[in-house]
């Protein structure tokens, strides 16, 4: 949790070799639409090609002198001109403009000086992933059983989803693996988030059912906790917070899901919550809102987080408002949950830096079928981490 050597190895062996979430196709619906963001600390941008309509993901660096080519967070462009020497690239990455081209010697391969695409780019139901590793397995093989849970999230939103414009971005001072554990940890909910449960009780939510469910390892480091909980879900589970006027619309949504997917699958979509980890750093929280969250550690004790809200496309304004309110009220940087979690993680980090404890205990539930408040889901993450880290992890453990 504190070793610079381990951190450097994680960047090289995990973040540089895995499939990483880049963004969602809905963020760039039209030709020339683009978004830029760091991917495992490296500047990239995603653009919809004007000629092909393809989703392109490029290293955000000019092939002339390396300057950033895309200098806005989002927008629409016919071309990207490097501000340094005005080399210009189209939305398919081809080099189209070189000032004073005649000054270059014959034989310069300008066609080969287009923007460098990521080694691999692929999409699963609108979720765009990239990898710096040209030899990685195909995306669907990598996702393994996590595909089924992404399907539940997307189908539960009617099958046609979009990322709501705007992001939550924040940083905190702890190790990134602590956030992985926390994001799929049902054990801490009632103790750490006691204030939120008191808030739910104050608005009339029935808390007698509590939180119960199971932990499921999904292969390749992915895992999920799946559980019932007292809060409402914008998918199709009413609660007092939504107001009486929302009952009819939520009942209609549930009836549509039952007709389309059957009662059993609709029950999973409407009643069950999911905290899904797609290894190594994508979290999809399908709870009282659907949050898509990524994070990256610039140092052993620092994490940068970006979160988006996923929602049904063309959702009624009243439902969208309730969804966004739930998103911010619980999971926003100033909500009920996030400040609690970050305080806990930073407290853990200070404890590790003190040297009294060398590793986490994640043995809870080993003597029974794993429940949502057990830790089998974390063990799935750590098994993959151990596999990729190899001898570096062994050396760190021996210390």
Question: What descriptive keywords fit this protein?
Answer:
399 residues; Naphthalene 1,2-dioxygenase Alpha Subunit, Chain A, domain 1; single chain; eight-stranded antiparallel sheet; 2Fe-2S; Ring_hydroxy_dOase_asu_C_dom; NAD; dioxygenase; Rieske Iron-sulfur Protein; ARHD_Rieske_2Fe_2S; 18 strands; alpha+beta; four-stranded antiparallel sheet; globular; 2 domains; 12 helices
What does it look like?
This protein has 399 residues and is α+β, with helices and mostly antiparallel strands. The protein contains twelve helices and 18 strands. β9 (120-124) and β10 (127-131) form a beta hairpin. α3 crosses α8 and α7 crosses α8 (263-271). The longest helix is centred in the C-terminal third of the chain and has 16 residues, at 338-353. The chain is globular, with a radius of gyration of 23 Å. The two termini are 12 Å apart. This is Aromatic ring-hydroxylating dioxygenase subunit alpha. Residues 20-102 form the Rieske domain.
Helical fraction equals 25-40%
Oligomerization:
single chain
Annotated CATH architecture of the largest domain = Alpha-Beta Complex
Number of individual domains: 2
How many strand segments?
Answer: 18
Q: How do the helices and strands follow one another from N- to C-terminus?
A: HEEEEEEEEEEHHEEHHHEEHHEEEEHHHH
Coarse morphology = globular
Q: Main beta sheet, described?
A: 8 strands, antiparallel
The percentage of residues in β strands lies in: 25-35%
